[in-house]
C-alpha cells in the first residue's frame, strides 16, 4: 500500500497527490511515469511523475477526473492509500544544455512539463514556457512554471486569461515573431517540448515542422503493465511500431503518427462510459 | 530394444486408465471455471493401482524436476496422501500447478513402462489429486495444513530472485529449504508470472497459484511485488543491499507481432495483452472489475501453441460466436498439448490450418477482416517440422472484429538493458549455462524462458531447481 501523505485540489477536476514511495522517489527522473492500481478490482493506469522528493521519499502525481479510475483516485483523501504503484517506468527526458527551449504544456499536461522545464533550467537552458487551459479557472501550476521559466506565456481557449486561443496558436505566433527570416530577429530555438492532449501535441508538431525545430512529445497511450509486456500502448513512429512504455514515452513529434494514436486512445470509449455510468449511480445511492 | 516381458502378464483384470472428469463443453464455454474437475479419492486409488512400482522406474527420467514418482504413487496406493504430497514437494514446490499444466504426455508419462502396451499411468492427474486434496480439506475445515501457520526461519546468506514465475518460485523455494534468505521480486502487482497473467482460470485457477505461493512463504521466502528490477532497483543495488546472488528468471515477456499491414488497428491484440487483461486483471468480469476487453463476435487467433489455444478458448468464453484458429502448418506440427487441442475442438474453436495472415484490414480504425494465404508443407526446417510455403494466388478473407497474435514471445529487455556487462545471445536471451544457470557475471544466475526462449512451465521449474543447487555450492565454496 502506498500512503497519500497530502492531497491538494488544484482546480475543479484536477488533484495533486503526494504519495509515500521511497524507492520510486529515489530513482524518478523528469519524464518518467508510474502505473497505479487503486484497489483489488481496479485497472492499471499510467500517470506521469510530476515531482519527487528524494529525501522525504515522496512522489507527486497530478490526475484529472475523466473516467472511473481517475474519479476513484480523486475520491481518495489524505491518509488513504493506493494499493499498487510501480515505477519509475519509461525513459527519462533528455536533459542537456541545448540553449533556448520552449516548453509547451496543455491542460493537465502542464504537470509533466514542469519537472522537465525545471531540470532543463538547472542544466543551463533558457526556458520559454507556454501553458494553457480551457479557461482561467482550469489553469494549473502557474506559479511553479513562473519560477522555473525565463519567459512564461499563458493561453486560454476562452480568452479569460492571457492569449485567446490554443497553445499551438501562440507557439506559431511566437516562432513567427522571434525566429526565421521574416522575424528580423535571429533567435535560435534549440527544441520544443510539448505535452498535453494528443490533438494539442499533433498541432504543436505541425507548427514547428516548417521552422525545422526538433520537437519532443510525451505520448499518452493506453497501457496495461507498463513494462513492455503487452503492446497495448503501441504507436507508429517513423513508420515503425514502438511501445510507448519502454521505447518512450517521449518521441520526436515529427515522426509520430498522431492519427493512429488518437484512434487507439478510443479503443475502450464505450467501456469507459459504461463503467463511469455505474460508478456515478453508485455514488448517488450512497 | 523392446524388452521381452510380455510373458509376465497381469493376472488381475486389466484396469483402464481413469479418465479425467471434466465440465461438459456446452456448459463450460459459458464460464471461466476449471474445465478439468480432478479425481475423486476412489479414482485416484484406482489409477494409482495401475502403477507397476517398477524396479527401475523410467517415469522419473522423463521429469525435469526429478520427482520421485514411483514413491509418491506408492504412497497413494497405501492411502498415505499427505506423505505422497510431501514426497512430491521434496522435489517440486508447485504440485497443484504442475499436475495441471505440465505436458506429462511428453515427459513422465511418455516414459512410463505401462505406456508401451497400454495407456501410461496418469501421473499428472495423481499429482494434482494429492495437492488438491490438501487444499480442499483445509478449505472445508477438515484438516489444517501442517505448514499453514508456521514460517520457517532462514538464516543463511541472502539471495535475490527476479521474477516470480515457475523458475523463480522454484529456485526460491529450493534455496529457502536449504536455509537461505530469499526475496523474490515481481514487477506486476501479483506474484506467479505466467501462471497468473498468462494461463487462464479455466486451466489453472488463480486460487491454486495463490495457495502454492503461500506454501513458499511458509518456507521462509519473501515476496515483493511492484518491483521492476532494472528500474525500481538495479542488479548492482541488489548486491549493494547485501544479496550474495541474483537469480534472473524474468521469462519471455515481449510479445511478437507479424509486421504485416494493419496490425495496429483497434481490435488487434497480442496474446500477452489479451490474456493479461482477462486473467490478471479479470476483464472477463467487466464491469464488476474495471479493466475492459473487447468481446469480439468473430475472433481470429494466430498461432498453434498453448498460448494461442488459451486465447481462443478465452475468446469463446467471452461470448464470441466464431473463433478461428489460424495456423500456418498442419495440426501435426502444432506445438500445443493434445489435451488443449481436444478441449478447444470440443468447445467449437474452428481450426483454419495451413493458412497464414498477410494483412489485417479495417474500417474507421477498427479491424473488420483478416486476409490470409493458403500454405503447403515443404521440406523439414531446422526445427524438424515441415516448412510451410505460401501457395500463390490462394489469398482469402475472413470477417473478424478481433485478432489475437499468439505467434510467440521474446525476452523483455527492461532488465537486461540495464546491465550491459551481462552477455546476451542474438535474440536477446541471457547467455547462461543450461546445466548450472551461471552467466558471465559473477554471482548472477539465470534460468527459465529468459535463457531458453519460450518453453514450458516444467522446464522452467527444472532450470530453477538446477540453479538452486549450483547457487548453494557457489555460496558455500565461493568458487565461480
Explained architecture:
The complex is a heterodimer of chains A (286) and B (480). Chain A has 286 residues and is an alpha/beta fold. Chain A contains 10 helices and 16 strands. Chain A has a 7-stranded antiparallel sheet with strand order 6-1-2-5-4-3-7. Chain A has a 7-stranded mixed sheet with strand order 11-10-9-8-12-13-16, sandwiched between helices. In chain A, strands 14-15 form a two-stranded antiparallel sheet. In chain A, helix 5 runs parallel beside helix 7. Chain A is globular. Chain B has 480 residues and is α/β, with parallel strands linked by helices. Helices cover 32% and strands 18% of the residues of chain B. Chain B has 17 helices and 16 strands. Chain B has helices at 25-28, 41-49, 69-77, 81-89, 95-101, 108-111, 123-139, 166-177, 194-197, 206-218, 235-240, 271-280, 306-317, 338-346, 413-416, 449-452, 457-477, and strands spanning 156-162, 180-185, 222-224, 243-248, 254-255, 268-270, 298-302, 322-327, 350-353, 355-363, 366-380, 386-390, 396-399, 402-405, 409-410, 444-446. Chain B has a 5-stranded parallel sheet with strand order 3-2-1-4-16. In chain B, strand 7, helix 13 and strand 8 form a beta-alpha-beta unit. In chain B, helix 4 packs across helix 7 and helix 8 (166-177) packs parallel to helix 17. Chain B is globular. Mean pLDDT of chain B is 92; it is low at 1-7. Classes of the chains: A alpha/beta (286), B alpha/beta (480). The interface between A and B is large, with 41 and 41 residues.
Amino acid at each position: 500500500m502506498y500512503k497519500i501523505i497530502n492531497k491538494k485540489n488544484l482546480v475543479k477536476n484536477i488533484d495533486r497527490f503526494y504519495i509515500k514511495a521511497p524507492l520510486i522517489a529515489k530513482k524518478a527522473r523528469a519524464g518518467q511515469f508510474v502505473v497505479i492500481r487503486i484497489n483489488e478490482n481496479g485497472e492499471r493506469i499510467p500517470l506521469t511523475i510530476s515531482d519527487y522528493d528524494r529525501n522525504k521519499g515522496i512522489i507527486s502525481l497530478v490526475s484529472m477526473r475523466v473516467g472511473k479510475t481517475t474519479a476513484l483516485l480523486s475520491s481518495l483523501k489524505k491518509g488513504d492509500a493506493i494499493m499498487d504503484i510501480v515505477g519509475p517506468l519509461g525513459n527519462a527526458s533528455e536533459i542537456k544544455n541545448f540553449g533556448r527551449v520552449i516548453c509547451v504544456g496543455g491542460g493537465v499536461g502542464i504537470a509533466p512539463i514542469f519537472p522537465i522545464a525545471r531540470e532543463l533550467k538547472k542544466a543551463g537552458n533558457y526556458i520559454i514556457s507556454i501553458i494553457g487551459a480551457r479557461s482561467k479557472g482550469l489553469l494549473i501550476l502557474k506559479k511553479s512554471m513562473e519560477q522555473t521559466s525565463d519567459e512564461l506565456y499563458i493561453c486560454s481557449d476562452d480568452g479569460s486569461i492571457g492569449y485567446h486561443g490554443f497553445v499551438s496558436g501562440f507557439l506559431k505566433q511566437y516562432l513567427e515573431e522571434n525566429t526565421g527570416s521574416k522575424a528580423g530577429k535571429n533567435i535560435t530555438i534549440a527544441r520544443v517540448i510539448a505535452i498535453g492532449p494528443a490533438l494539442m501535441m499533433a498541432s504543436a508538431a505541425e507548427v514547428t515542422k516548417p521552422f525545422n525545430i526538433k520537437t519532443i512529445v510525451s505520448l499518452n497511450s493506453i497501457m496495461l503493465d507498463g513494462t513492455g509486456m503487452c503492446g497495448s500502448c503501441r504507436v507508429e513512429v517513423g513508420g515503425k511500431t514502438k511501445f510507448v512504455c519502454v521505447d518512450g514515452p517521449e518521441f520526436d513529434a515529427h515522426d509520430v503518427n498522431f492519427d493512429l494514436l488518437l484512434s487507439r486512445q478510443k479503443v475502450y470509449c464505450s467501456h469507459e462510459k459504461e463503467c463511469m455510468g455505474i460508478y456515478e449511480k453508485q455514488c448517488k445511492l450512497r | 530394444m523392446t524388452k521381452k516381458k510380455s510373458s509376465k502378464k497381469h493376472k488381475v483384470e486389466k484396469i483402464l486408465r481413469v479418465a479425467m472428469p471434466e465440465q461438459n463443453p456446452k456448459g463450460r464455454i459459458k464460464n471461466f471455471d476449471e474445465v478439468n474437475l480432478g479425481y475423486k479419492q476412489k479414482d485416484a486409488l484406482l489409477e494409482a493401482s495401475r502403477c507397476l512400482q517398477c524396479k527401475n522406474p523410467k517415469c522419473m527420467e522423463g521429469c525435469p524436476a526429478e520427482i520421485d514418482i514411483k514413491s509418491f504413487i506408492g504412497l497413494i496406493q497405501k492411502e498415505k496422501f499427505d506423505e505422497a504430497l510431501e514426497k512430491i514437494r521434496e522435489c517440486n514446490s508447485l504440485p497443484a500447478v504442475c499436475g495441471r499444466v505440465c505436458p506429462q504426455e511428453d515427459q513422465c508419462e511418455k516414459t512410463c513402462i505401462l505406456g508401451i502396451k497400454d495407456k501410461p499411468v496418469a501421473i499428472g492427474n495423481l499429482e494434482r489429486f494429492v495437492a488438491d486434496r490438501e487444499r480442499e480439506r483445509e478449505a472445508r475445515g477438515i484438516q489444517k495444513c501442517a505448514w499453514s501457520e508456521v514460517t520457517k526461519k532462514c538464516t543463511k546468506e541472502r539471495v535475490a530472485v527476479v521474477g516470480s514465475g515457475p523458475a523463480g518460485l522454484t529456485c526460491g523455494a529450493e534455496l529457502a529449504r536449504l536455509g537461505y534468505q530469499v526475496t523474490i521480486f515481481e514487477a506486476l502487482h501479483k506474484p506467479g508470472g505466467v501462471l497468473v497473467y498468462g494461463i487462464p482460470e479455466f486451466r489453472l485457477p488463480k486460487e491454486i497459484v495463490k495457495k502454492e505461493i503461500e506454501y513458499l512463504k511458509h518456507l521462509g521466502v519473501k515476496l515483493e511485488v511492484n518491483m521492476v528490477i532494472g528500474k525500481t532497483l538495479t542488479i548492482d543495488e541488489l548486491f549493494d543491499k547485501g544479496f550474495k546472488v541474483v537469480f534472473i528468471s524474468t521469462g519471455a515477456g515481449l510479445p511478437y507481432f507479424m509486421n504485416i499491414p494493419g496490425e495496429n488497428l483497434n481490435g488487434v491484440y497480442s496474446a500477452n495483452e489479451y490474456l493479461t487483461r482477462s486473467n490478471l486483471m479479470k476483464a472477463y468480469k467487466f464491469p464488476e472489475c474495471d479493466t475492459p476487453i473487447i468481446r469480439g463476435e468473430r475472433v481470429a487467433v494466430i498461432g498453434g501453441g498453448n498460448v494461442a489455444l488459451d486465447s481462443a478458448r478465452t475468446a469463446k468464453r467471452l461470448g464470441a460466436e466464431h473463433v478461428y484458429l489460424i495456423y500456418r502448418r498442419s495440426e501435426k506440427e502444432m506445438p500445443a498439448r493434445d489435451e488443449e487441442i481436444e478441449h478447444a475442438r470440443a468447445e467449437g474453436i474452428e481450426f483454419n490450418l495451413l493458412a497464414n495472415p498477410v494483412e489485417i484490414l479495417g474500417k474507421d480504425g477498427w479491424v473488420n477482416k483478416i486476409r490470409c494465404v493458403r500454405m503447403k508443407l515443404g521440406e523439414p526446417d531446422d526445427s524438424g517440422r515441415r516448412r510451410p510455403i505460401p501457395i500463390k494466388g490462394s489469398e482469402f478473407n475472413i470477417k473478424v472484429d478481433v485478432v489475437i497474435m499468439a505467434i510467440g514471445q521474446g525476452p523483455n529487455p527492461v532488465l537486461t538493458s540495464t546491465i550491459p556487462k551481462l552477455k546476451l545471445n542474438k535474440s536477446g536471451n541471457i547467455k547462461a549455462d543450461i546445466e548450472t544457470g551461471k552467466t558471465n557475471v559473477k554471482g548472477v544466475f539465470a534460468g527459465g524462458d529468459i535463457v531458453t526462449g519460450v518453453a514450458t512451465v516444467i522446464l522452467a521449474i527444472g532450470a530453477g531447481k538446477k540453479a538452486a543447487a549450483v547457487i548453494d555450492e557457489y555460496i558455500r565454496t565461493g568458487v565461480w
